[in-house]
Design a protein that fits this description.
By secondary structure, the protein is of the alpha/beta class. The chain has a domain of 216 residues: 3-Layer(aba) Sandwich (Rossmann fold). The chain has 19 helices and 16 strands. A six-stranded mixed beta sheet has the order 4-5-15-10-11-14, sandwiched between helices. Helix 3 runs antiparallel to helix 4, helix 5 packs across helix 10 and helix 15 crosses helix 16. The chain starts with a strand and ends with a helix.
Length: 458
């Protein structure tokens, strides 16, 4: 299996690159995102795959896309990654009747990002151990990616991680999960700006090919295909556990989580449709409703991981939607970069299998309150966005809602919605010690970040 860029020029070669090179490359040299040259159709394997545990299914899935890693090695990496979760099913499904919850928060940092990043950290270490290389990971986070990535690579040989996040715009517990990690290979960079500023700096560093090569930069954001691949596992598992093709309700900001589901759909797995749920940062909801991709100001909300106005994984969807035409993708993105908006005008539906809905802060709080009152189940504010959207879009079916994070990570909105009754502590979070915080505050300036990376790179 080879990997190609959404912008057409993967590297100096005309062909694509193998999986391990794609994992270490992160962002393609032309600024595009990497995708497999094809999606294998597994329609004939569905009956056999239905009988697999989540871990075994993930192992089968990775073998299709990571064929330059020995199957036994890949299986061991995945088994070890999911052994770090505190539930025997890894991603259990809870049925509340009107909807189901795919609980993705049983990993070390209580976020769905752990599913991918526990795999990715071990995969990095395996590839580097085989080649004798080194890697400096650069990432941006609006909340949970940072802590999950840090916990995936902390203390690992030949790897350093530099995680950018918007200063003062992640929850206090999310910040502590990053800044209280004391391993010397971890660097937390609090940027005086928005998440979009952080993400733009990261993309600019990868776009400086000399700097990228000199410091061996690697990516953990969902621009890295291996992250999407790991997330595809739980869509495949949940779809095959369902007696009928399910509807998935997905809270999303950067389009990475929902794109994993779209990729599974490309493989022939039975999925009815997706409900794309955004908060007040509704650029994606507006696009799927109108075909216009227009940037707005980043709004600070109680679901901070979704406070994004430029969704990096949207480019992968755009590439598939435009028939893998890299030139059309580049024209669309150039218009967006120049004008702050771009539009699809080909007269076709954007995607008949996606219903997009934006949810307000009041609706988010009301959903937390109502689900707690009806079912005694506490939602975190990101999951509540997805549930609220599912309730609007699904009147005659029981959708599977992605439970993105443990509610203990967001005690303030949970307390506000439930009058304090729904706040449940979690031992992982209670152990965080604000006295050992390590972070560096930097301006939203590419040069400042480059200087810091250069001074501290592995």
């Amino acid at each position: 299996m080879l990997y190609i860029s959404t912008r057409g020029s993967t590297s100096t070669r005309t062909a694509g690159m193998p999986f391990t090179e794609a994992v270490l490359t992160g962002l393609a040299a032309d600024g595009g995102l990497l995708l497999p040259e094809r999606f294998p159709n597994i329609g004939s394997d569905l009956a056999a795959w239905r009988r697999l545990s989540f871990t075994a299914l993930a192992q089968r899935l990775f073998r299709l896309y990571a064929d330059d890693v020995a199957a036994a090695d890949m299986d061991a990496i995945i088994a070890d990654a999911f052994a770090a979760f505190d539930h025997p099913s890894v991603v259990p499904i809870t049925d509340l009747g009107e909807f189901q919850l795919l609980e993705l928060f049983h990993g070390p940092t209580l976020s769905f990002k752990d599913v991918a990043l526990q795999v990715l950290g071990r995969l990095f270490e395996h590839i580097l151990g085989r080649s004798g290389g080194r890697l400096n990971i650069i990432g941006a986070t609006s909340g949970d990616t940072g802590s999950a990535a840090i916990h995936g690579v902390r203390g690992r040989a030949n790897i350093s991680i530099f995680m950018l996040y918007p200063n003062g715009r992640v929850s206090p517990l999310q910040e502590l999960q990053m800044t209280t990690v004391t391993d010397r290979n971890v660097h937390c960079l609090a940027i005086d700006g928005s998440f979009d500023d952080c993400q733009s700096i990261v993309k600019a560093l990868f776009g400086d090919l000399a700097f990228k090569e000199r410091h061996r930069l690697g990516a953990v954001n969902s621009m890295n295909w291996a992250r999407v691949l790991a997330q595809m596992s739980y869509y495949a598992y949940a779809a095959l556990q369902s007696p009928a093709p399910p509807t998935f309700a997905v809270p999303t900001g950067n389009f990475g989580n929902i794109f994993a589901g779209i990729a599974v759909r490309e493989m022939g797995l039975p999925i009815r449709r997706f409900v794309l749920a955004t908060n007040a940062n509704d650029i994606l909801a507006r696009f799927f409703q109108t075909g216009i991709y227009r940037r707005g100001p980043v709004r600070h909300t109680i679901s901070p991981s979704m406070d994004i106005q430029i969704a990096s994984n949207f480019e992968r969807f755009l590439y598939l939607r435009l028939g893998r035409d890299a030139e059309r993708v580049k024209r669309f993105l150039a218009s967006f970069a120049a004008n702050g908006e771009a539009q699809l005008k080909d007269g076709k539906p954007i995607d008949d299998g996606i219903a997009a809905i934006a949810i307000s802060e009041d609706e988010t709080l009301a959903t937390i309150r109502d689900v707690y009152r009806r079912h005694g189940y506490v939602l975190d504010p990101h999951t509540a966005v997805g549930v609220a959207a599912a309730r609007q879009a699904c009147t005659s079916e029981s959708p599977i809602c992605m439970a993105a994070a443990h509610p203990a990570k967001f005690p303030e909105p949970v307390a506000a919605a439930t009058d304090g009754a729904g706040v449940v502590p979690h031992p992982t979070l209670e152990q965080l010690d604000s006295a050992v915080v390590r972070k560096t505050v930097l301006p939203a300036d590419q040069g400042a970040v480059m200087e810091y990376v250069q001074a501290h790179a592995t």
